[in-house]
Amino acid sequence: MDPVLAGDLARLPELLQAARDLAVREVAGLAVRPVAASGPAPGRDPLPAAGVGGDAALARFAERWAPLFSGSAGPRYLGFVTGGATPASVAGDWMTAALDQNLSGAGGSRAQELERETVAWLRELFGLGEAHSGAFVTGAAMSNTVGLAIGREWAGERLGVDVSRAGAAALGPLDVLSGSPHSSIEKAMSVLGLGRDRLRPVPLLPGGREAVDVAALETALAGAGGRPVLVVANAGTVNTVDFDDLRAVAALKERYDFWLHVDAAFGAFAALSPEHAALVDGLDAADSVCVDLHKWLNVPYDAAVQFTRRRDLQLAVFHNASPYLGLPGSDPDFLHLTPENSRRLRALPAWFSLVAYGRDGHREVVERNVALARRLGAGVDALPGLELLAPVRLNVVCFTLATDPSAKRVAALARAVAASGEAYVTPTVYGGMPGLRAAFTNWRTTEADTDRVLAVLAAASGRGS
Ligand SMILES: *Cc1c(COP(=O)(O)O)cnc(C)c1O
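^ thats the input. predicted complex w/ pyridoxal-5'-phosphate below
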């Protein structure tokens, strides 16, 4: 064994202790460090020929890279839809790495059953019935891709084409209908050979809503002339957290033949709050469902879950039979269900967080985040320099400058907020209008944090940036 490697083996407890000490220092610093990293990236070091050992690597990382990372795990990073990592989920992630299981199949481990247990808990958390099976994937974009891949296979079933063997081209054009789809839907369509141009936008409800007009969706379905189509319903849009009426969309299945995929990346968490659970009524009727976990479950990147009612079709798409892997049985190994073959025990951080905090603990995070979004929304509304672009429906505040909200001035405002080190918000365009979004998803955020964000917004917008 390389002597440096042998030395690390001998000192493994000390090395892990040192890594723990650095992590504790970094995480404790989240409340005070600048929220966004500033300064240029360092130049590249050459590939090390001789290694320096784990302790020296840790020291080099702490000195050279850690200061350039963002405080995105902290309480005032409100960009995109960014969750943090609960304490127990970090412990679970460390165990995932330390025990290094390959979740592709049983292979001498029962770790697969832990993923199945976690999927069953999540299914219950989001109000899905037992007809849905699920698997962990890396994120909502991948969950959407898998859901649409199963939908593509379903379209083949309707047309008498085995897509997994004959290829997507054998299907002919397959339209995807959606009101306000996330950008990852088009990416999935590109990956799956459906083509980005087959996305058919469906009109939205009037009054600046991002929810689909169900009557217009029905018209579009009637216009499909009996050809199978995929419908992507949206449960929680990124700008204003609007929800399609899932019940009404699902009811159309009585008259039209379509695959219903619901992108509930973070909106599914409305199910945890009695006040908002009605927003996801009808979710169970979907053929496939996407839920992100590194957003509102607050587990470390990367984790999402993918549910479907048609595991048989999922198996047709993803099965990976070989002499040494064997044929998939009645409870197929995960390598037959997702794009990956080898995969990490991505479920363990979620398992830890659900065991540690339960449904109640996670509900408290969701309800607090919603209350804080309302608090910031009311504050923004009261500022002379800013105005809300939409009511605060759940956990996102979408707003812009009260005067001359050009893309340039709005981007400058976002930069000024980031440069303050106090907060981070991200630009968007909503209804053709440049604006900013502040998304509350982090388990740590408090009223005091929210008031600090409001203060920096007041200062930056007051300066006429
Ligand atoms: C974040 C998000 C996605 C993409 O999720 P990733 O985890 O970044 O892959 C898809 N849909 C919606 C609605 C989202 O909010």
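The pocket of pyridoxal-5'-phosphate is lined by residues 81, 139-141, 144, 182, 184, 236, 238, 263, 265-266, 292, 304 (CB under 6 Å).
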